[in-house]
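User: Can you model how adenosine monophosphate sits in this protein?
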Amino acid sequence: MKILVVGSGGREHALVWKLAQSPHARQMWCAPGNAGIGQERLAANGALVQCVPIGAEDLPGLLAFAREQKPDLTVVGPDNPLAMGIVDQFQAAGLRIWGPNQRAAQFEASKVFSQQFMEKYGIATARSGIFEEPAAASRFAAGLGGKCAVKADGLALGKGVLICRDMQQADAAIEEILVRRAFGEAGRRVVIQELLEGVEVSLHALCDGKTAKLFPDAQDHKRALDGDQGLNTGGMGTYSPTPFFGPGDAIVVVRQILEPWLKGCAAEGIDYRGILYPGLMLTRQGPKVLEFNARFGDPETQVYLPRLENDLVELMMACVEGTLAKVELKFNAMTAVCVIMASGGYPGKYEKGKVISGLEAVAAWPNTKVFHAGTALADGRVVTSGGRVLGVTAWGKDLPAAREAAYAAVERIRFDGAHYRRDIAAKALKNRE
Ligand code: AMP
Ligand code: GLY
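Assistant: Here's the modeled complex, given as structure tokens:
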């Protein structure tokens, strides 16, 4: 099969790496890819994955490329092309593509849509209200004592959620989103949720329009600095599984979240094929959905795929063709840990073009894989080209082993200004004591 992967981050490197292991993959492109993706080889024939310089949001460019090269399967990594309707456009052109269509991608593209859907179909979530009017929004926040999450409706580069602990913060958040339009049109409406207390975990479920199959749990670390301090980022590290989510929780999630979600999709005529990634809070009253994403998490993918034993090409084909019910998902019993190495200054301003050393040495280590995110080639050397640069991933028999291996690799890799958290998975270790 010829496969085209859309995107350029660590998630896409992990997808390419896993897809390349499949005997079905005979030729692979990634648009636009990165320096690490361009070094991957297909297990079937040793061919290199080719990076093609077409942006993930350049839908006409991607479609023209696909019409010419005729991939048997296109796999979409990021949310924006999904929200822009890449799946609908490829399907209209008779091209097979993995990911939710534009209507289904609304679960991520519109928080108002998701919240209304959850309430209509009885999916466990936070108490909430939807507002266009600042005064009404403020009254609702006051009813929650100001303890709330104020969320811009639309996509806002992961920055459209403001956590408030009193009325002053809540009014400032409402002002910022609804009045000052800090996130533009994405902030024409807001969802205000009560603040939930508990441990936050990421879940993923593969879907084929009728069936949803749950992945194991993972946990991200969204803040830039140790101890969950500093600014929000795209994610600074993950591990899977976590000690916080037991088999009993999985049963509750299937019954109280996935089953009503599937019923709702059927009732509304939403044909969801791809992966659904709910962000969950494990509260004292049980798991509750904070938000839905319509794509793989980044860097959750980097810890899921080393544990996945199925052929990913076959899984994605089962989603597209509606045959997921026949598939059994298999994950190994290892723990995987991913530590993000970021550019100094990220998520604020940072410099690019720093030479990265140590990659060849670590490439020879067992049970370790460095997924590239913001990297590029300059004069034959790998240099930094983004905020999140590398997802240094290792797996082992348990969390201490995996964590030690991941940090050993991090210590071996260097670039000017490199910044990473030293406490990825520390909460889970504490929980074991
Ligand atoms: P979201 O993009 O909706 O997942 O929100 C971003 C982050 O804000 C989440 O990962 C949580 O850490 C936090 N958050 C969102 N909603 C809530 C809520 N209702 N209660 C507590 N924390 C929340
Ligand atoms: N792990 C955070 C995200 O993918 O949105």
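A couple of observations from the model: Residues 126, 149, 151, 161, 163, 193, 195-196, 200, 222, 279, 290-291 surround adenosine monophosphate (ligand 1) (CB under 6 Å). The first helix runs from residue 10 to 20.
User: Helpful, thanks.
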